[in-house]
Structure formats: C-alpha cells, structure tokens
Amino acid sequence: MKIKRPSKDLYYMGIAQEVARRSTCYRRFFGTIVVKDDQIISTGYVGAPRKTKDCLEHGNCLRDKLNIPHGQRYEICRSVHSEQNAIINSARAGVSLLDATVYLYGEDPKTGKAIEAFPCFICKKMIINSGVATVICSTDKGKVKKYKVSTWANEWHKNDIIDDKTQYGKKENKKATKRKTKKRKK
Hints:
Helices cover 35% and strands 17% of the residues. By secondary structure, it is α+β, with helices and mostly antiparallel strands. Strands 2-1-3-4-5 form a five-stranded mixed beta sheet. Strand 4 and strand 5 form a beta hairpin. 30% of the residues are buried.
C-alpha cells in the first residue's frame, strides 16, 4: 500500500488553516504559523487585542457598519491581523523570527472557500523588520505561493512602497506593471 504524504508546505498550510478557524472577523479568516528549523514557533489568527471585545462579541464588523471597503482603513478595524499576532506572540515568548518561514492561510468565512492570501502593507513591513526569510501564502486553488522577504525589501529600496507589484487584494497585472516601468525609464 502506497501512502501519499502532503508536502511540508501543504502540511504547514493545513495547520495555518486550522489556526484561521479561531478568527473573530466577519470579513476574512486568516491564520499564520511561523516555522523555524522545521518547528512551529508561533501562531496567530485575526482577532481583537487581548481582553477586548471582538466583532463576534459586538455582533457586527465595524468597518462594514461604516461602509469601509476591503483593504482600506485598517486602523478602524477591531482586529489585529494574523501575521501581526504571530509576530507579537513570538515576542511574548522571547523567540526570534530571524530566517523563519511564515505560512499564511486565508478563507472567506461566508463561503468557507480559500482565498488568495497575502500580507497587507502594514504586515509586510512588520515581516521585513522581524527578520523572516520566506512567506508562503495560500491560493484560491488550494496551492501555495512563495515569496522571499529580501525581494520585497530590495524592490522597496529601488522603487517605493506604492510601486509594489504584489499587493493584498489585487491581482498582479503584468501589462500594467510593464507600462509603469517603461514610463519611469523615459
């Protein structure tokens, strides 16, 4: 009998998916695990700061109530992002994230379907500063996408944050990126 084992990436993504189930956000479930030397060193899910009421306890999403679109005005959200919580939880435990790998799983709580997960700009900045080496994100097709954090930092060093090719909530548009690059070179 041949047993099919999941790859390490899918194994860890499955654990991040389970962590996401603890999310208290009406808009998105996200779960993050941080792995270093093949060991999980931290986890985080979308949820309100410790000892405060989350959206489920309030019975609504504040950003929905205020008609704030997805991907905007995070400062008005009751929740802390899963990546932020994983970084904070590792700091609380005194564990370094240098050269670690972050696994980020995202799901639409209304449909239960996986979504294209990717850190927002705030989380991306925190990941860069934490020393994480690689970020692996879930896709809506049940696969994973890998990113080298050093590439993000190098791109922001050469250009600017606003020129970032890969942004949360936006599909990469290669034609538009090429046009922008050509205009800048002129």
